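Project standup — Tuesday

K.O.: blocked on the structure for the chain from last sprint. Re-posting the sequence here as requested.
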Amino acid sequence: MNDLSSQNTDRKKWMSLLAKAPEGRIAALLDTATARPGFDWLRAPEVGSVMVRGRMGGTGDAFNMGEMTVTRCALKLGCGTVGHGYVQGRRKACAEAAALIDALMQTQAAPRIQAEVLDPLTEETEARQTSRADKAAATKVDFFTMSRGED
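H.V.: unblocked you, prediction finished:
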């Protein structure tokens, strides 16, 4: 049972990483790593929207913030493995590549796909986050109370 939980956690991580990847990057890494296998569509790429929810301060009641455009698809490899792809925006080719990676990560090709696709994506994502945090930190203003010298 613990193994299944671990697999689900790992899958959530790579699905999240693929969903947020820059346009064209997933396909470029996939094409470099391996030849694309044959597959059948279970659900061809389609564009839709999802409701984005938020919380004030991260602890308040949830509220509907607005809608976000997403592209999703599902495919089945020749070996029977099913892959799903969800990406931000109107990017059908990216959704297809994400679904292929999801399916391949459930096969014997997983170590190669992890090393040649997911690990570089993780490094790039962390570098973008660090750069963004550094830019934000550069604008930080520290406020403090000064004594006016009055008793």
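K.O.: great, moving the ticket to review. The radius of gyration is 21 Å. The chain has a mean pLDDT of 89.
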